[in-house]
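Blinded run. Sample ID left blank on purpose so nobody reads anything into the name before looking at the predicted structure. Input follows.
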Amino acid sequence: LHLRELAQDIHRGGRTGSGMDDNDREMAALRRSQKFRAHQSKYGDRSAARREREKEEARLKAEMELDREKRAAAAAQRKEEIAKATEEMMSSLPASFGAKKDDGGKDIHRKRKLEAFTQPSASQDQIDATMANLKKLQLPVSCEIVLNHGQKVISAMGLDPRGGRLLTGGYDYTVKMWDFAGMTRTLENFRELEPKEGHVIRQLRYCKGGKFLCITGYRCASIFTRDGHMEHEYNRGDMYIHDLQHTVGHVAALTDGHWNPKNDAEFLTASEDGSMRIWDVNTERRSKEYIKLKPRGGGKRVPVTACCFSPNGDMIAGAGRMGSVQIWERRQQRVSPRAKKKVYKAHEPQTETSCVVFASDNRALASRGGDGTLKLWDVRKFKKPVVEWKKDLPNDYPTSDVAFSPKGDLIICGTTSKAPGDKKAGRGGELVFFSRKTRKEVQRVRVCSASVVRVIWNAKLNQIFCGCSDGATRVLYDPELSRNGALLCVKKKPKRKSAMDFSTFLHIKNPNALPLFAETQNPKRIRQKKRADPVASKKPLEPLKGEGTGGRVGLHNLTTHLMECMAKKNLRNEDPREALLAWDEKAKADPMFFGNAYKDSQPNQIYEEDKDEDEDEESEQIKELKRKISSTPMGADPEAHRKDWK
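Blinded prediction complete.
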């Protein structure tokens, strides 16, 4: 501030210097010199203060560095002392004390035995060739985990598109939910539910939004949320309507279901009533479209055993129990009434075609028949199958699956295990792989001794899920080729149990609630409490204010006002006889009820005479005569009183 004032004075002096005399100049110079000396004496030299400050900062920094070195040296010395003491203590203990248990190192995966890929009597050359073929095909079947659902057949499986959750349903009417990210090595499900009591689970499918479709043996389909809570249950049809097109839903048990791949708001259902229906998720009352599977030559309804959408959503395929496979086109969100392509003898009649599925290119269709065959069809030339495989492919379950590999070059299906006495008995349930390019069987993998019913090959996880007839779901994977899914839970150890996990539930008794420990109340307090209770004190009803309620009339409504104005208030004190006689003269002058009819023809009214007195006198005479007759002695002439009687 002083420097700024000094500069202003210098500038002012230079500007006005031409008009200043010598005295003014001397006074200005004197003022400048005085301010400069005062500033120097108060603030000193800036450079000297800066140097002093830098010296002080350097000194403090050196002291902090020295202190840090001393603390580090003390910590290192303390660490050496602890290590030396620990070594002396461990030397006196057994060598096994404190050793970690061997978890197998990196080999924590449950590898499958060699017998699952080769025959028991195979030579070493055959074993080497099989392992080389597995490596060439890059099949994720080297390891497995087993998810125990129950004791009955796994008839339905559904996998989340992201591969995080798995659904399993079986002949025990229950659905179990598995979360790979939340499971540990114990492999336990996190939820169990029963969609429809007493009905087998036929199909479970996830949509992209996280909801899943549940198809049971009942007539109604259901949709559940990702956490397993029912969101919709759709309507059933009227079984007494002959034309099913005019009813709102299915009238027989459902067999299959499928989501629209391009629209999560639509799904397809198939039923034993011979029809398929497309539903809108938000409309529970009736189906959106009706599709009928027509049998050859007409006739009775043919139950639909399997159905599916094409990946682009433009085609719908359905299979019937008579062995037929038919395809409908769906253009502009409408299904053509007639099947564009159909083959009536795709599989043997009276066998259930358990599955039909489109390839990812929308050009090929695979069908799994109950006659023990697997057929591949070209949608463009649908009259004959491209190839048919029927060697050692038994199928005894109506829900057996067939699936394509993630790349679409392989086809996979499961087989049914036969009884030991059966001539066709094999090695148990197997996965059979076929090549679309060479049209040959390329590999067989034994899964278990039971039958393989359901099969899912997920592209994101690159893992194969097999639902078996022994109530277990086996997940096949490879540590190098697969990712997430089973790999997440295999590496996760179960949580160690603590004392807090064993909580006991005891009955808590409140002694104050027992009559023995009840507080004795003051009689005055009891009377006050009873007085406050209107029921116990028999308090009379208070007059109502406002409109009447409960059958009582209020004091301020229109009806009460009219009654107060029109009705007489002295009815109790009035004599009824005098009130009636007051109307006598008026009634004679102007008769209201029956006098007008005889007013002109008979002005003088004639009333019936009263005969009650004569009847009383006659009765007295009869009584006197009866007394005379009764007093007549025995043997007298009865004709004596006959004249009097007449």
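Unblinding after everyone has recorded impressions. The first strand starts at residue 143 and ends at 148.
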